[in-house]
C-alpha cells in the first residue's frame, strides 16, 4: 500500500559547491519517499561544517525555533533510553482500546462447509476484541540522535512493529499510514573554505504517528 501523498512532507535540497570544494553536496534533509521512517542523512565528516560552541547558544536557538519547539518529541540533551513503547510481540494480545467501527460491523460469514457461523453476542464481542488486539499496530517510539548539525539534536522517532504478521491468516504487516511534521533547525553552509557562510535554517522532519495492519 502506498502512503498518501500527504505523507510526503519532507523535501530534499542540495547545494552545489564550486569545483575543488571538499564538500561537493550538502543534503539539508532526506529525499521524498513513500517509505517511513525516512532514511538517515549521510553527513560530510569535515568538522569545518559543524556549528561551533558559540553557534549552539540554547537561549538564542530556542527563540529562533519559537513555538515549533516540542519537548514531547525534541530534546537538546541525550534523553535516558526508557521503554517508551514495548516492542514485545505479545503487545497485540493486550486490549489496545475500544473496537474500531469497521470491526464492529464485521460479518463473520460462513464456514468452509457452507454452514453459517453462529455466535452469541458475548462470544462475538470477545472474538472481535481478540481480533482487534491481534491486528492492532501501535507506534513504537525511540529517541534518535540527529547529529550536531540539527537543533534540537534528539528526536523521538516512531516506528511500526513489523517483525511478525499482524493478520489472520498471516500475510499482512504493520505499516505507517500517518505522520506529523516537526520543525527543527538545520546548520546550513554555503560556499567553501574561508568564503563559506553558515546559519541555522528551519527544516521539517516527519514522525510516524499511526501504524496500520496492511498489505
UniProtKB/TrEMBL annotation:
S-S bonds: 137-174, 160-211, 166-213, 189-198
Principal localisation: secreted
Cell location: Secreted
Family: Belongs to the noggin family.
Swiss-Prot/TrEMBL keywords: Chondrogenesis, Developmental protein, Differentiation, Disulfide bond, Secreted, Signal
Entry keyword annotation includes Signal: yes
Cleavable signal peptide: 1-22
Quaternary structure and interacting proteins, as annotated: Homodimer.
Pfam name, any one: Noggin
GO biological process assignments: cartilage development; dorsal/ventral pattern formation; negative regulation of BMP signaling pathway; negative regulation of cell differentiation; osteoblast differentiation
Classification via PANTHER family: BONE MORPHOGENETIC PROTEIN INHIBITOR, NOGGIN, NOGGIN
A cellular component annotation (GO) from this entry: extracellular space
Organism this protein belongs to: Eublepharis macularius
Protein name from the UniProt record: Noggin
Amino acid at each position: 500500500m502506498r502512503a498518501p501523498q500527504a505523507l510526503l512532507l519532507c523535501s530534499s535540497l542540495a547545494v552545489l559547491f564550486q569545483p575543488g570544494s571538499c564538500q561537493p553536496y550538502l543534503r539539508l534533509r532526506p529525499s521524498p519517499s513513500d517509505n517511513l521512517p525516512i532514511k538517515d542523512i549521510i553527513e560530510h565528516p569535515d568538522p569545518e561544517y559543524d556549528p561551533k560552541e558559540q553557534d549552539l547558544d540554547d537561549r538564542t536557538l530556542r527563540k529562533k525555533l519559537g513555538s515549533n519547539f516540542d519537548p514531547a518529541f525534541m530534546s537538546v540533551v541525550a534523553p535516558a533510553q526508557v521503554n517508551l513503547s514495548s516492542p514485545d510481540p505479545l503487545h497485540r494480545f493486550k486490549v489496545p482500546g475500544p473496537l474500531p467501527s469497521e470491526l464492529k460491523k464485521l460479518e463473520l460469514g460462513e464456514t468452509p462447509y457452507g454452514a453459517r457461523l453462529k455466535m452469541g453476542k458475548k462470544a462475538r464481542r470477545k472474538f472481535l476484541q481478540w481480533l482487534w488486539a491481534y491486528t492492532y499496530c501501535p507506534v513504537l517510539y525511540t529517541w534518535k540522535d540527529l547529529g550536531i548539525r540539527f537543533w534540537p539534536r534528539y528526536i523521538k522517532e516512531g516506528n511500526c512493529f513489523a517483525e511478525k504478521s499482524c493478520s489472520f491468516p498471516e500475510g499482512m504487516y504493520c505499516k505507517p499510514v500517518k505522520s506529523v511534521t516537526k520543525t527543527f533547525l538545520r546548520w546550513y553552509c554555503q560556499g567553501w573554505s574561508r568564503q563559506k557562510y553558515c546559519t541555522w535554517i528551519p527544516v521539517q522532519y516527519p514522525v510516524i504517528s499511526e501504524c496500520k495492519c496492511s498489505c
